[in-house]
Amino acid sequence: MIALSLTLSGCSWLTDEDTAPRQRVKLLCAEPRLDNSFKFHTRAKEYLTSYYKTRKESELFFAWYASEDSDYMARTIRKCWDKRNKHYHAVKNMMRKNDILQKVIVQNMRHDSHTQISELFLDDYRKIFVRDIQ
Questions:
Q1: CA angle centred on 59, ends 103 and 125, rounded to 5°
Q2: Residue range 16-72, pLDDT digits in tens
Q3: Does residue 96 fall inside a structural domain?
Q4: Among 18, 42, 45, 63, which residue carries the largest CB count within 10 Å?
């Protein structure tokens, strides 16, 4: 009917393909977000490893933020239309891993007591931990 009325009105250049309803392609949502969550988690572990090598506290903060980004990406999967049981279990696993990683990061961050000790024994502390004071 539409093609007939368009042909009669002078629009004969339209084909059946142009008047057919277009199918919407649903993009995958859960898999890429889960992959990004794993990548952020891996990056957080690399920053923590780098901290152990260099003793730069900035590496701990980078590790913390990468771990937080991993948590965020894992939590956004619940909004995806293509989530499955395996995604649910992968998210729980990722959240557990990030929780443990964040505990390790916090244990390595300086607390007020560490700062006070390092100020009291700064000369001795420098001899022992050369790289730690920057």
A1: 90
A2: 555 555 555 456 889 999 999 999 999 999 999 999 999 888 898 899 999 999 999
A3: yes
A4: 63
* 83 belongs to a structural domain: yes
Q: How many domains does the chain have?
A: 1
| 3 vs 1: CA distance, rounded Å | 5
Q: How confident is the model at residue 6 (pLDDT cuts 50, 70, 90)?
A: very low
* Residues of the domain holding 70: 30-109
| R_g over Cα of the chain | 27
SS3 47: helix
Nearest-angstrom CA–CA distance, 114 and 95: 29
State how far the Cα of 74 lies from the Cα of 90, in Å rounded to an integer. 9
Q: For residue 115, is it within any domain? A: no
